[in-house]
Amino acid sequence: MIQALTLLGALGMFLYGMNLMSGGLQKAAGSKMRSFLTAMTSNPFKGVMSGLGITSVIQSSSATTVMTVGFVNAGLLTLAQAVGVIMGANIGTTVTAWLVSLLGFKADISLFAVPLMALGFILSISKSDHRRHISELVMGFSLLFLGLSLMKESVPDLRETPEVLAFIQNWTSYGFGSVLIFLLFGTILTLVLQSSSATMALTLIMVNMGWISFEMGAAMVLGENIGTTITANIAAAVGNANARRAALAHTLFNLFGVCWALALFRPFLMLVGTTITWLGLPNPMDIVHSADVVMTADESMATLYGISMLHTLFNIFNTLILIWFVNVIVKIVSAVIKDKKSVDEDSVKLKFIDAGHLSTAELAVGQARNEVVHFAEVSSRTVGFLRTAIEAGDAKEFEAVRQRLVKYEEIADRMEYEIAQFLNALPEDSISEDTRTETKRMYKIIGELESLGDSGEVIARILMRRNSHNRTFTEEQKQKLGAVLDVLDKCYAVMIGNLKADNIEQIGIRMATDAEIELNDLRNALREEEILKIESDGSNYTSSVYYLDTLAELERMGDYIINISQALGK
Hints:
Blueprint (H helix, E strand, L loop, with lengths): L1 H28 L1 H9 L4 H15 L2 H13 L5 H14 L1 H12 L4 H15 L4 H26 L11 H5 L5 H18 L2 H13 L5 H14 L1 H8 L4 H23 L1 H13 L19 H26 L3 H11 L24 H31 L3 H30 L8 H36 L6 H26 L5 H31 L4 H29 L1
C-alpha cells in the first residue's frame, strides 16, 4: 500500500513539476509568446514550426493546443493556421520523451535537481518579476525529475514480486488483440492523467523495468496520442464554432495517424528498430522482455530510445502526410460543426472569451483584448440608432428605436460585467507585470464603453420627454445633430482602430484627440448659435432645451471615447 501511495505521490510531483515549469515559461515569455504565435502562422509550414517551437519550450502539447483553441476562439488565428500549429505541437511534445529517455534513465538527474531547487529559491525572492518566473521554471524542472526518480524507485520489482502486475503481462498473449488492448490502456491512462507526457514517462518506466515489451509500449504511445486530444475538446466545448472545429481537427489528425500506424504496425516498428541500430544500439524488436531477464545497459537504452523514436517518427510522418491537406481538414470539420444562425441581430453576447482558458492565464489576455474590441464595435452601433431616433417621423418608428437603445444599454452593462468577471478570474500570480498593467487598462476601457451605452439610453429619454410635450426638432436642428453624429462616427472609428493596434502610436492618440477637438468645437459653435436664436426668438424655447441637452450628451460620448484612446497610451 505504501509503495502504491508513493507511486501516486511521485506521479503527482511529476505532473506538478511539469505544470509549474510550463507556467513559469509562459509568464516569463508573456506577450512575446502571443506575438510569436500570431506572427509565425502565415502558412501551414510556419504554423507547424511555431507549434513545435512553443511546445518544445513549455513542454506541454496540451497547453499549446488549448492555447491555440483559445486563440481561434478569440479570432487571433484562423482555423487553417490553428491546424498547422496543432500539427507542430504534436511533434514538439516528443521532446519530453527524449528528455526523460536521455536524462531520466541514463543518469540520476535527481542529484542535480535538488541543488537546482536552491537556485530556484534564490530567484524566487528576487524583486524582479522575470527572475521569479524563471524560478518557477527551475523549480518545476527539479520537481519533474525528482518525481520521475521516485516513480522509478517506487514501482515494484517483478523479479521479487511477479504477481503484482501479472494481470498486465497476461494482456500480452492475444497477438494483435494485445496491441489494441494496450492502445486502449494508453488512451484511458492519458484521459485520467490529462497529460500525455506523464503517460509517456510511465510507459518508458514499464518498458525499462521489463513489465511490457517494446511492441506493447509502442501501442501505448499510439493510445496516448488519442487520449491527449480530450483536453482541447474539453476546453473548446463552451467555445465558438471555430474553437470546436480546431479541437476536432486535432482529434482527426491523431486518429488518422493511429489508423495508418496500426495498419502498418509491424513495418513501422521495424523502421524504428532499424533507426535505433544506426545509433549503434541493439534492435529493440529483438530484445527479450521478461521479469527473469535483466536487460544490459545498451538494451535498456535501445528500448527507451526506441519508444521515443517511435513517438517522434509517428508525429513527423503524420504531419508530412496531412500538411498538404490542411484545407481539406478545415472543410471536413466545418461541415461537421456548422455555424449557428443568429435569429436576432440584437442578441449580442461575448464571442471570444466563452471558453475562458485560465490554465494559460498569460495567454488568455489576447482573448480579453479581442472581446474589448468586439464590445467597442457593438457600442458603435448606437450612433446609427441615435440618428434614426432623431429623424423618426412617427411615434411607432421612434418607439422601436428607443427600445433598441434601451436594449443596447443593457447589453453594455452585461458585456462590461462578463469581461470584468473574466479578468477577475485571471490569477494575479500567474501573469507578468506588463500583462497586469494591460488588464488594469482594460478595466478602464470597458467602464468607458459601458458609459457610452448609458449615454445612448439618456438621449432616448430626452427625446421621449420631448415627444411627451408634443415638440419636434426643426429640419435645421436635425441636420446639425446629424453633423455631430458624423463626427462621433469618426471618433468611434479612430478609437476602434487604436484598440485593434498591437502598440498604439502617438499618431493614433493625436488622431483621437483631433477628432474629439472637432466634436467639441462643433458642439460649442452649434450651442452658441442656438442660444442666440433663443435670445432673438424664444417661441420654440422648449424644443431648443431638448436640442441642447441632446447636443451636450453627444459631446459627453466624445469624452468617453477619447478617454479610451488615452487609456491605451498610458
